[in-house]
Design goal:
Elements (H helix, E strand, L loop, with lengths): L6 E4 L1 H15 L3 H17 L8 E2 L10 E6 L2 E8 L2 E9 L8
Parallel strand pairs: 1-5
Antiparallel strand pairs: 2-3, 3-4, 4-5
Length: 101
């Protein structure tokens, strides 16, 4: 059995979100900011071995099953798994109003 290789690609929007999260948290604690970002990245990396490890994104309209999401440290990470690429779409604080797309 050949194991498929998946690649994670962070969109520019998702990268910007991570920078904003880091900047916001680091104003109080650079150590905590690093921990939160690393936790989010580690959780995303778990999807490489099994892209469907996380649930379908309930905020995606007409989700064909390729849009998934997970929560880590009060942040919701949405991604699309398709053609051996896991594309991280955005990172959004769970305290904010959910964004349907």
């Amino acid at each position: 059995m050949v194991r498929e290789e998946w690649e994670i690609v962070w969109t520019q929007r998702a990268q910007r979100h991570l920078r904003q999260i880091f900047d916001y948290i680091s104003a109080d604690s650079p150590k905590n900011a690093s921990k939160v970002i690393n936790d989010i990245i580690d959780a995303a990396n778990k999807s490489v071995s099994n892209p469907e490890i996380y649930a379908r994104d309930k905020y995606r309209r007409d989700n064909d099953g390729s849009y998934l999401a997970f929560e880590k440290n009060h942040y919701r990470i949405s991604y699309k798994a398709e053609k051996n690429v896991i594309r991280i779409l955005w990172v959004r604080h769970t305290g904010r109003k959910p964004k349907f797309y």
